[in-house]
Design goal:
5-stranded antiparallel β-sheet; OB fold (Dihydrolipoamide Acetyltransferase, E2P); alpha+beta; 27% helix; single chain; 8 helices
Length: 301
């Protein structure tokens, strides 16, 4: 086990959240420090540092000290210090959390390109699900020390194992409502108390066991549509709700809606501008919804 191997012999490089650069050393000295401890020849050290600096675009900064660098530049130096070691595994501990929003996006892309170029395993810890979705080949979602699901990003988005995973992955997060499964005229419906929608036939078999029982209903914001823009909307999937707020985002609009019992968010087209505090009709794409057990919060379907 790796626990039985001294840290210095594990061939693992760490990139810290707070950069952890030596303030009295130049960028070159910071990046080469680990190599000097291993008594690597000076010529090879210079070659490795210059290669890493080229990859990260910080060659012009090699003679500067950390206090002369921006946050993004310091983070690049911290990544470069890890790269020069050519380890078997990189560990990234929330490396972008101290950067502003624009720099976070830029560095996220740079780290992704770096991973493709180096073809080395990276274990990346983050609380930002956007970082996980955009950078990960596989995502492991943990809560309270318990591993809930490990899979590729798209599979986790489409098939979350439980309510926690479903709510964590996605922006905006999945909408949840509590309600009851009812059977009427050989059909199954989800009744929230104020609104009611019909389940698709593919869900009948799994949901039959929950007839007259409380469940959690989950639907993502992009699977909700304004009825005005849907040509053929099944009437049993149309709900009337109140629009409390709309937020124009440029390419799309976020609608903050209220059923009278639950609030939820719809992500609609940029030109959809309903009147605030007025009722509107929405269509739920029932083929995309999820149901979760009320007690265990595990996914039913």
């Amino acid at each position: 086990m790796v626990n039985d191997v001294p840290a210095k012999d594990r061939d693992i490089a760490m990139v810290f959240q707070n950069y952890a650069l030596y303030p009295h050393m130049t960028v070159f000295e910071n990046m080469s420090f680990g190599l000097r401890l291993r008594h690597i020849q000076k010529k090879e050290i210079a070659q490795r540092v210059n290669e890493a600096a080229d990859i990260l675009g910080i060659k012009r900064l090699l003679n500067r000290k950390p206090k002369e660098l921006s946050g993004g530049e310091r983070q690049r130096v911290a990544v470069g210090r890890a790269i020069v070691r050519k380890p078997l595994v990189f560990l990234f501990d929330e490396p972008l959390s101290n950067l502003d929003a624009k720099m976070r996006v830029q560095m996220r892309t740079e780290i992704h390109k770096l991973h493709i170029r180096l073809q080395t395993t990276i274990i990346y810890v983050t609380h930002d699900q956007v970082e996980a979705m955009t950078m990960g080949d596989r995502i492991a979602v943990m809560k309270d020390g318990i591993l809930h699901q490990v899979t590729d990003p798209i599979n986790m988005y489409d098939h979350p194992k439980n309510k926690f995973v479903a709510g964590f992955i996605g922006s905006p997060p999945m909408n949840f409502m509590s309600g009851k499964i009812i059977k009427k005229d050989a059909r199954f419906y989800f009744n929230e108390g104020k609104i009611q929608v019909k389940l698709v036939d593919d869900m009948r078999q799994k949901m039959a066991a929950y007839t007259d029982k409380e469940v959690f209903f989950g639907i993502r914001s992009e699977d909700i549509y304004d009825k005005l823009f849907v040509s053929e909307a099944p009437p049993e999937n149309v709900v009337r709700v109140n629009c409390e707020v709309y937020e124009p985002m440029g390419s799309e609009v976020y609608l903050y809606l209220n059923t009278g019992k639950h609030t939820f968010i719809a992500r609609v087209g940029a030109h959809d501008r309903p009147k605030v505090n007025q009722d509107m009709d929405l269509v739920f794409d029932m083929s995309k919804v999820h149901f979760f057990d009320k007690d265990t919060e595990e996914t039913i379907v």
